[in-house]
C-alpha cells in the first residue's frame, strides 16, 4: 500500500508496504528481507504492454477509441501476467468518458469485474484524499500548512530536531521520519484506533523536516489524525461526510472492515489467477495512508476534483486545487533537489511529453493501482488490479504501461529529444559516481540491517552520462545532465537532481524519494560477507558435534580430556543461541512481510538470546587460548579461532544494528 524502485519513477510503487524487504531474501539464516511500498529477486517481470508512440497513431480521445485501445491491450496482458481482474476509468473534458472491467472479481465463481460495481482497495492513492481533507480545513481557516502540528494535537510528536514539523512537511513526505513496518496491517477483526497508531511506538525522526524527501506512511497518518483532532470527527466519518459523499463517491469508504452494504461487492484478492484468494481483509493501521476502498467510476469522480474544468468540484476552491498541484517546497528548503521532479501537497508532480501530470499509485499485498491526472487537459486515467501477477514487478509494469500508454497515445505533446549534454556533464558525473542508500529506510533498530543491503550504484560513463542501477532489479538506467546538477532519463522523461554542499553530494532526489551517499555507512556487501561467513562457520561447527561423536564411537577414539571443558560447553551454548537468535529475527521478518502482527515482547527475548550469544565470545577466546597453550593440533586451533571470529562477526552486526539493545519498534 504504501509504495519499488528500479528507477526513481518506479520508486512510486513503494507507496505501499515496502517490498524491498522481499527483494533482499537470501539463503538460510542469512535470508533477509523486504516490497510497497515489488522488485523481488527471481524471474524478470512478464512483458508489459508497449505504449503507443505518437508517430504510430492519430488517436482521438473519445469513448470508441479508448475502449478499442483498452480492449486490444489489457485482456491479453492480464492473461499473460496471470492477473485475475482489473478495472479502468478515463475522464475527458472533465467528465467520465468510459469505465471498463476486465477479468474476474471472483475467479472460482466466474464473477466478472464491473467498473461501476466492483470494489478495489486503492492503497496509497488514499493519501490524495487525506491531503484533500487537510486542504478543506486549511481553506476554512482551521489549519495552517506552516504551523507546527503540535498546535493541533492532543499529544506532542517525538522529534529529533528543533524546527517545526508542519502539515506542509507531512503532505510532501519531508517530515523526516524513518520507515515503520511492524503491524502495518492489523489482525482481522481488530479495530483501527488512529490516535493509538500515531502515538504508540512512532518511527524516529532521522532527517531535519523539510530537507530530505523520505516517503512516509506515518507522516500521512499523522496528517489524518490532525484532521480527526481538529474536526472532532473520526477520520473515516469525516472523509465520508466531507470528501467522498460530496464528490459523488457513493460506493467508497475508509471504513475497515467494509460496511455490510459494500462488503459483498469487494473483489477477491489474489497472488495470481491460479492461486486461491487471500482469505482476509487487509486492515491498514495507518488508515489515512492506505485504507480507501472504491470503484473505478468513483475514482473518476475524484479525478474531476483536480481538473481545471471542474476544479474543486464543490470540495475545494480552484485556488486550493492549484496550490496542491504546485511544488510544496523550494530550493531554500530542499537545496538542489528542488531542481528535479517534486511533490505537491499529497500528489506526485510529473511531466510527460510536455504535459503536466499529478499522480499517485499504491499497493497492498494483492491490489495495485495507479491514478494520473492532467489538470490543464481536463483528463485522467485510473487503473486498478486485484492480483500481483506471476513476476515481481509485473503489476507495476502493467499499470504504468497503461497510464503512460494513455499519455503517449492521447497527449503526445513534445517528445524529449536527446538534446545537448551540459558542458559540466563529465565532471558532475564523476562526482556522482558511488554507492547510495535510500532515504526511505530504518536507522534506529534491527531492521536497519536489511536497509543496509539496499544499495543503489551510480556509475559515470565515458561520454558524461550516469548509469543508475537499483538492487531490486539490477537493471541499469542511463541519465544525461540537461541542466547543471539535473539529469533526465535517456529516451525517457524521469529526472534526478542533486544537492551539492561545499563540493560534496548531499543527496540525489526525485519526488518523495532521495538517494543518500553511503560513504559513511557500513557497506551492505561487507555486512553480508561477514554475516554469511559467520553463519556458515557456526552451522558447520554445530553439525560437527554429532558427526564427531559418531566418528569417535565408531572408531573407539577417546573423548577429549576434561581440561577446558566448561569453556567449550559455554562456547557451544553461545553458538546455538547465536544461530537461534538470527533465526528469530528471520521469523519476525517473515511475519512482518506477511502482514502478521508482531510481538515487541518477542523481539526483546530475541535481543536477550542474541546478547547471550555475544557474551559467548569470552569462553570462545578461552578455548582458543587453551588449544594453543596445550598444542591441541592445528585443526583444533584453526577451528576454535574460526568459531571465535564467527561469534565476534555476528556480535558486531547484532550490536551495530540494535539486535542486542535498543528499540524493537520497526
Kindly describe this structure.
The protein is α+β, with helices and mostly antiparallel strands and about 675 residues long. Helix content is about 35%, strand content about 15%. The chain has 19 helices and 19 strands. It has helices spanning about 20-25, 65-80, 125-140, 165-170, 195-200, 215-230, 235-245, 285-290, 295-305, 320-325, 330-335, 395-410, 425-430, 450, 525-555, 565-595, 600-615, 615-630, 635-655, and strands at about 85-90, 95-105, 110, 120, 185, 285, 295, 350, 355-365, 370-375, 380-385, 435-440, 455-460, 465-470, 475-485, 485-490, 495-500, 505-510, 515. The strands form four sheets. The protein has an eight-stranded antiparallel β-barrel with strand order 12-13-14-15-16-17-18-19. Strands 3-2-1-11-10-9-8 form a seven-stranded antiparallel sheet, sandwiched between helices. It has a two-stranded antiparallel ribbon with strand order 4-7. The longest helix has about 30 residues, at about 525-555. The protein is globular, with a radius of gyration of 27 Å. The relative contact order is 0.14.
Task: Provide a compact summary of the structure.
36% of the residues lie in helices and 15% in strands.
Amino acid at each position: 500500500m504504501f509504495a519499488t524502485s528500479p528507477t526513481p519513477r518506479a520508486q512510486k510503487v513503494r507507496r505501499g508496504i515496502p517490498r524491498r524487504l522481499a527483494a533482499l531474501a537470501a539463503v538460510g539464516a542469512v535470508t533477509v528481507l523486504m516490497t510497497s511500498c515489488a522488485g523481488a529477486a527471481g524471474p524478470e517481470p512478464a512483458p508489459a504492454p508497449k505504449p503507443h508512440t505518437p508517430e504510430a497513431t492519430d488517436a482521438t480521445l473519445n469513448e470508441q477509441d479508448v475502449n478499442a485501445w483498452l480492449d486490444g491491450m489489457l485482456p491479453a496482458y492480464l492473461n499473460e501476467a496471470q492477473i485475475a481482474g482489473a478495472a479502468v476509468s478515463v475522464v475527458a473534458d472533465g467528465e467520465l468518458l468510459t469505465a471498463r472491467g476486465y477479468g474476474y472479481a471472483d475467479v472460482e465463481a466466474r464473477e466478472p469485474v464491473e467498473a461501476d460495481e466492483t470494489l478495489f482497495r486503492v492503497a496509497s492513492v488514499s493519501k490524495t484524499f487525506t491531503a484533500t481533507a487537510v486542504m478543506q480545513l486549511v481553506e476554512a481557516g482551521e489549519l495552517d500548512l506552516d504551523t507546527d502540528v503540535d498546535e493541533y494535537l492532543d499529544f506532542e510528536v517525538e522529534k529529533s530536531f528543533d524546527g517545526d514539523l508542519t502539515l506542509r512537511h507531512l503532505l510532501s513526505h519531508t517530515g523526516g521520519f524513518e520507515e515503520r513496518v511492524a503491524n502495518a496491517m492489523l489482525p482481522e477483526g481488530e479495530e483501527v484506533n488512529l490516535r493509538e497508531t500515531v502515538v504508540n511506538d512512532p518511527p524516529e525522526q532521522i532527517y531535519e523536516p523539510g530537507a530530505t524527501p523520505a516517503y512516509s506512511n506515518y507522516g500521512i497518518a499523522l496528517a489524518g489524525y490532525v484532521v480527526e483532532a481538529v474536526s472532532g470527527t473520526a477520520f473515516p466519518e469525516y472523509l465520508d461526510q466531507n470528501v467522498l459523499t460530496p464528490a459523488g463517491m457513493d460506493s467508497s469508504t475508509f471504513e475497515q472492515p467494509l460496511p455490510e452494504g459494500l462488503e459483498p461487492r469487494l473483489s477477491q484478492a489474489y497472488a495470481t489467477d491460479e492461486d486461491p484468494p487471500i482469505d482476509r481483509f487487509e486492515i491498514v493501521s495507518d488508515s489515512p495512508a492506505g485504507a480507501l476502498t472504491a470503484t473505478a467510476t468513483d475514482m473518476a469522480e475524484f479525478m474531476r476534483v483536480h481538473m481545471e474544468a471542474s476544479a474543486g468540484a464543490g470540495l475545494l476552491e480552484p485556488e486550493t486545487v492549484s496550490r496542491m498541484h504546485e511544488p510544496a517546497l523550494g530550493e531554500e528548503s530542499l537545496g538542489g533537489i528542488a531542481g528535479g521532479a517534486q511533490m505537491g501537497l499529497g500528489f506526485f508532480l510529473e511531466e510527460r511529453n510536455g504535459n503536466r501530470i499529478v499522480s499517485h499509485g499504491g499497493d497492498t499485498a494483492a491490489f495495485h493501482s495507479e491514478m494520473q491526472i492532467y489538470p490543464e487537459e481536463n483528463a485522467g486515467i485510473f487503473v486498478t488490479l486485484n492480483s500481483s501477477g506471476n513476476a515481481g514487478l509485473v503489476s507495476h509494469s502493467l499499470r504504468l504501461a497503461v497510464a503512460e500508454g494513455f499519455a503517449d497515445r492521447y497527449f503526445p505533446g513534445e517528445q524529449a529529444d536527446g538534446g545537448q549534454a551540459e558542458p559540466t556533464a563529465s565532471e558532475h558525473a564523476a562526482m556522482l559516481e558511488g554507492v547510495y542508500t535510500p532515504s526511505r529506510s530504518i536507522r534506529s533498530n534491527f531492521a536497519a540491517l536489511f536497509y543496509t543491503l539496499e544499495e543503489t550504484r551510480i556509475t559515470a560513463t565515458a561520454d558524461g552520462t550516469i548509469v543508475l542501477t537499483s538492487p531490486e532489479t539490477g537493471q541499469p538506467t542511463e541519465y544525461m545532465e540537461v541542466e547543471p546538477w539535473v539529469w533526465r532519463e535517456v529516451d525517457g522523461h524521469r529526472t534526478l537532481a542533486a544537492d551539492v554542499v561545499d563540493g560534496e553530494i548531499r543527496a540525489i532526489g526525485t519526488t518523495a524519494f532521495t538517494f543518500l551517499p553511503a560513504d559513511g555507512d557500513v557497506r551492505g556487501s561487507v555486512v553480508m560477507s561477514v554475516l554469511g561467513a559467520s553463519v556458515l562457520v557456526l552451522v558447520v561447527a554445530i553439525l560437527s558435534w554429532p558427526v564427531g561423536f559418531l566418528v569417535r564411537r565408531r572408531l573407539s577414539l577417546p573423548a577429549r580430556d576434561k581440561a577446558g571443558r566448561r569453556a567449550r560447553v559455554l562456547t557451544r551454548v553461545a553458538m546455538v543461541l547465536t544461530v537461534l537468535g538470527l533465526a528469530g529475527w528471520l521469523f519476525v521478518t517473515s511475519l512482518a512481510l506477511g502482514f502478521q502482527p508482531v510481538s515487541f515482547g518477542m523481539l526483546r527475548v530475541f535481543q536477550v538470546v542474541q546478547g547471550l550469544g555475544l557474551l559467548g565470545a569470552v569462553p570462545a577466546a578461552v578455548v582458543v587460548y587453551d588449544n594453543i597453550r596445550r598444542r591441541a593440533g592445528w585443526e583444533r586451533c584453526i577451528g576454535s579461532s574460526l568459531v571465535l571470529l564467527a561469534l565476534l562477526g555476528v556480535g558486531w552486526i547484532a550490536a551495530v544494528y540494535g539486535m542486542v539493545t535498543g528499540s524493537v519498534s520497526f
